[in-house]
Amino acid sequence: MAAGLTGLLRWYAEMGVDIAVDDAPHDRFAESRASIGVRADMRGLAAAPPETIEISRRVMREPGTALPPEAIAASAWDQAAAAQSLGDLRERLSRFEGCGLKATATRLVFGDGNPSADVMFVGEAPGADEDREGVPFVGRAGQLLDKMLASIGLDRGKVYIANVVPWRPPGNRTPTPLETAACLPFTRRQIELVDPKILVCLGAASAQTLLGGKEGVMRMRGRWFAYPAGNTEIRALAMLHPAFLLRQPAHKKLAWQDLRMLAKEMNTYRPTPVGSCP
Ligand code: URA
Predict the structure, then answer these.
(1) Cα 49 to ligand 1 centroid, rounded to whole Å
(2) What is the C-alpha separation between 278 and 270, in angstroms, rounded?
(3) How confident is the model over 83-94, as pLDDT tens digits?
(4) What residue ranges line ligand 1, CB within 6 angstroms?
């Protein structure tokens, strides 16, 4: 009996079921069958052009067909572009149905810190602690990130923190390229709205998604990139992810080199005083 229960728990953990969210079980399949009609009309298409809405409606009428990726992408870009503030963006993202991770996550983990910060950090995806609290980087990796920030005189009041994917992937797996791509319009708009002077990509998923290329983060770290933002470019740095540093503490020395690069750039950066332009 005990061995059976242990086996069941192990199987749950391997499948990514590592938190109990309620006392009583729910039949999620029955719930989603009942809500399919409602959800089909709530796929965040309010601001999409009429042709996009029509394509989506046509596809949604066919039983068993999913929304085509082009319609999801069009809807995501429209929704993100229409957001005029971080609160508005968060609201639109919470109604967006184009990323499957939303179905298994407990909460949307949008962002934390100072929305007017000069430095913005973007990680990969929430883990179990973040999923429970709805705040990015609050687990062990987050505690290490806080220490890394403190080592160069920063804290969450001085930086803004987000992820390339705002919902926890089951079992903390890496988000797939499709999941990251589905959320990308929202991540890009979030960066645009925060408008930082410096962008720091934590880990490979963030660096590859936002800075392009297929190089591993070991090759990307320690170098400055240009992140295109409207008519200008933001200085961007790739760094090792704190979760990786927890597993490979010997690499902390590389992270320290990158933090010093960041501190140096922050000290060199001088905002243009208001009214000084001719
Ligand atoms: N790892 C991330 O990339 N983001 C979080 O929010 C937590 C852990």
Answers:
(1) 34
(2) 18
(3) 999 999 999 999
(4) 123-127, 130, 136-137, 139, 141-142, 163, 243
pLDDT digits (tens, 9 = 90+) for 160-207: 999 999 999 999 999 999 899 999 999 999 999 999 999 999 999 999
What distances in angstroms separate CA 242 from CA 59, 123, 273, one per listed residue? 42, 9, 35
Hey, where are the domains in the chain? 2-16+28-267
What is the pLDDT at residue 278? 36
CA atoms within 13 A on the CB side of 171: 8
- Topology of domain 2-16+28-267 in CATH is Uracil-DNA Glycosylase, subunit E (3.40.470)
User: Is the per-residue pLDDT at 208 higher than 80?
Assistant: yes
* Segment of 41-50, 58-67, 99-108 carrying the highest mean pLDDT: 99-108
- Is 211 within 8 Å of 238 (Cβ atoms)? yes
Q: Which two tokens stand for residue 41?
A: 């009309």
- Tell me how far the alpha carbon of residue 131 lies from the centroid of ligand 1, in angstroms: 10
Secondary structure of 206-271 in the HEC alphabet?
HHHHHHCCCCCHHHHCCCEEEEEECCEEEEEEEECCHHHHHHCHHHHHHHHHHHHHHHHHHHHCCC
213 pLDDT tier (thresholds 50, 70, 90): confident
CA 96 – CA 202 distance, rounded (Å): 25
pTM for the whole thing? 0.76
> Rounded to whole angstroms, how far apart are CA atoms 181 and 103?
17
Give the ligand 1 atom nearest the CA of 135. 6
Atom of ligand 1 at shortest distance to CA of 123?
Answer: 3
**Cβ pair 140, 246 in contact under 8 A:** yes
Return the H-helix or E-strand segment holding 201.
strand 198-202
